[in-house]
Amino acid sequence: MHNSANDDFTKRLLLSLKNIGYRVNNITGITIEINKLFSEKSITSHAVRKWLTGKAIPIHSRLLRLSEWLGVSPSWLRFGEGEMYLKHNHETRCIEFHEDMSYSILLSKLNSLSKDELQLVINQIDLLIKIKKL
User: Fold this and answer.
1) Which has more pLDDT, 90 or 122?
2) How far apart are the C-alpha atoms of 35 and 15, rounded to whole Å?
3) Which phi and psi angles does 129 have, rounded to 5°?
4) Is 82 left (phi over 0), alpha (psi -120 to 50) or beta?
5) Predicted confidence (pLDDT) per residue in 9-43, tens digit
6) CA distance 56 to 109
7) Domain boundaries, the chain
8) How far apart are CA 128 and CA 134, in angstroms?
9) Rounded to 5°, angle at Cα 47 from 87 and 29
């Protein structure tokens, strides 16, 4: 059974997936990526399909991980409230709100890196900034 809250959530989820480069008709691919987030218990393609068709909304803990992966605010993803996009602060490793979509895409990619890989990226950025100042 559909309801307005589910449909609105689905619209935001579809937009977020599109913004990070996922084709919505590739439910298997999306399910595989989502399951990387939920290593403790797998999510089925059927559950993901329900999220993508407005038949269900993920539980809160899954919603939090989804929003982090997508680079969007959990509040925005679930309820459409507040700022949509997030930006990552590598010094404090906390998430800040940001209105620019490119930060959201970058955040989703950075979140997929290990701590060592992230440090390597940060070092490269620092090096580029130093070179630019010369």
Assistant:
1) 122
2) 20
3) -65, -40
4) left
5) 999 999 998 888 887 788 888 888 888 877 667 88
6) 26
7) 4-133
8) 10
9) 60
